[in-house]
Amino acid sequence: MPELHIAAEFRAPLSYVYSWCTDFDPGDAQREREQYVRRILERTARRVVFEDLEDTKDGWVWSRHVVTLRPPNAWHSESVGSHRDASLEYALTPLPGDRTRLDLRWRRWPTARATVRRSKREIERSTAEAWRHLSRALERDYRADRVRPRR
What we know:
Helices cover about 25% and strands about 45% of the residues. By secondary structure, the chain is an alpha+beta fold. Strands 1-7-6-5-4-3-2 form a 7-stranded antiparallel beta sheet.
């Protein structure tokens, strides 16, 4: 599989985007408008391990992600699953006006259980769509956090 790439922009500063994007939790599926269930197995200052499970029309799809955090602007994920394995690199770049750009580059390999082979274009399009949903959620949270009074 060739390298895949998408970019996303956020109207929030890099430090906020990094914290938000690397705070993996069970609510992430809802933010992406997906149906998987997420379980956090381990969380340390430098590593997060979680599993996602989704019931699809073709059966269960499972994946485990081992995320290495590289503050202040990057993280890496190695993922194994029932239908695909993947290696992902996330990098954030500050932009003018308190904006941040995310570049996601990854490779994925279908496993023998993969029932559907998707094209590079389809995979990038669906990933970009998920990040559009995440971007809206992140920006909504950022605006809400800015107006909350500090104690």
